[in-house]
From TrEMBL:
Species this protein is from: Aureobasidium subglaciale (strain EXF-2481)
Domain Aspartate/homoserine dehydrogenase NAD-binding stretches: 13-143
Designated name of the protein: Homoserine dehydrogenase
EC number(s) reported in the record: 1.1.1.3
UniProt keyword annotations, A-Z: Amino-acid biosynthesis, Methionine biosynthesis, NADP, Oxidoreductase, Threonine biosynthesis
Length: 372
């Protein structure tokens, strides 16, 4: 007869995704405590860029008051390396949820994993950094080749859509993935669907960028979406999972939509303030495509055999499924040997706090199922 167990959870980042995650975690915690064999989930650490809250003795934090408690906390900031030490002394298994976009934190994943701490994250930075870091992470993880903590990152591609789990299952069941293509950015999808809808009309480009930011679709700095790198990071992750040794997200052609004149902007706010000056350029792009009866969309593709990866704008006929996407929808086509010329297609919202947090919460469940 299995016995009840306790698992600790530590959360870094309480922004758009982090806040939704904490709500979903609270509901999960209740459900797990009522299961036939209960799991008691306790939040023992939470932080944001300027605040940290935890107890030296691993006393659970109160989820009902967590936001105010964190903001009122006077505890000194813990560097990631100090957090590794603190969590590794916990008397129960620990899952660390990284809801930031910090590369510095991601670089510590191998250290956390080697100490038996599991990691769940929507943060793409570590998985698309050097191939060496990718290898270090999976060499340490128990669901890689190591015997440390477990590592899951479903929301790094397509937010909560089951993109990575599907690709892994295709590969692990022996299918041969030949090509992956589609729309991989919720922000870019939203921008082009609303700025250049099929049938004409649409708002100004800069106004749509602001809407995408306000809706929580963009990266913390929207330039990370508009420069194409967010999509390049996702394709790097997919290509690596499909077996390609892509060195980094700039080792293949990536089209940037940042106007030359704005490349020197010192902050995201400065960039956003000046973007309307360049609405005319985007309007010309729209008119040019319309004169051919087409629309423009921001897409990416990976040709596995030729190792050809690319990211950028392409024109589509109005009848094409990519032209017909709505809102922040992503569409991901997997061409494989088994599926032949009709790809396996995954489609749905590819950005937003709730759907991204769903992928993160789902990954917490995967860790709980894996931990014995
Ligand atoms: N938004 C979306 O639709 C999707 C997001 N993602 C990924 O999810 C992650 C979070 O995105 P999102 O919630 O939108 O971003 P936000 O900017 O809303 O939130 C980021 C959070 O991380 C905190 N933070 C940043 N750096 C550090 C640090 N060094 N130490 C501790 N805390 C830190 C911020 O602190 P503070 O509050 O003090 O600023 C903030 O709470 C990103 O990696 C993003 O790429 C993935 C898929 C979709
Ligand atoms: N900024 C990203 C968020 C999800 O990864 C996007 O727009 O797709
Ligand atoms: Na996903």
């Amino acid at each position: 007869m299995p016995t009840p167990r306790q698992v600790y959870v530590a959360v870094i980042g309480v922004g758009g995704v982090g806040k939704c995650f904490l709500n979903q975690f609270q509901a999960l915690r209740t459900r797990m405590s009522q299961a036939r064999t209960p799991t008691y989930l306790d939040l023992i650490f939470v932080s944001r860029s300027s605040k940290v809250l935890f107890s030296e003795s691993f006393r659970p934090l109160n989820l009902d008051t967590i936001e105010a408690d964190l903001n009122n906390s006077k505890q000194p900031i813990l560097e990631a390396s100090a957090l590794v030490e603190y969590l590794s002394t916990a008397p129960e298994k620990v899952i660390l949820v990284d809801n930031t976009s910090s590369l510095d934190i991601a670089r510590q994943y191998p250290a956390f994993l080697r100490k038996g701490i599991s990691i769940v994250t929507p943060n793409k930075k570590g998985f698309s950094d050097s191939f060496e870091l990718w290898e270090d992470m999976f060499a340490a993880a128990s669901n890689g080749t190591g015997n440390g903590g477990y590592l899951f990152h479903e929301s790094t591609v397509g937010a909560g859509l089951p993109v990575l789990s599907t690709l892994k299952e295709l590969v692990e069941t022996g299918d041969e993935v030949t090509k992956i293509e589609g729309v991989f950015s919720g922000t870019m999808s939203f921008l082009f669907n609303s700025f250049m809808p099929v049938g004409g009309g649409g708002g100004s480009f800069a106004a749509e960028v602001k809407k995408a930011k306000d809706l929580g679709y963009t990266e913390p700095d929207p330039r990370d979406d508009l420069n194409g790198l967010d999509v390049a990071r996702k394709l790097t992750i997919l290509a690596r999972l499909a077996g390609l040794k892509i060195q980094n997200p700039t080792s293949f052609p990536v089209q940037s939509l940042i106007p030359k004149e704005l490349e020197s902007c010192t902050s995201g706010d400065d960039f956003m303030a000046r973007l309307p000056e360049f609405d005319d350029q985007m309007e010309r792009l729209k008119q040019e495509a319309a004169s051919e009866g087409k629309v423009v969309r921001f897409v990416g593709s990976i040709d596995v055999a030729s190792q050809n990866v690319k990211v950028g704008l392409e024109k589509f006929d109005a009848s094409h499924p990519i032209a017909a996407l709505k809102g922040s929808d992503n569409i991901i086509n997997f061409y494989t040997k088994r599926y032949g010329s009709n790809p396996l297609i995954i489609q749905g919202a590819g950005a937003g706090g709730e759907v991204t947090a769903m992928g993160v919460t789902g990954d917490v469940l995967k860790v709980l199922r894996s931990l014995n």
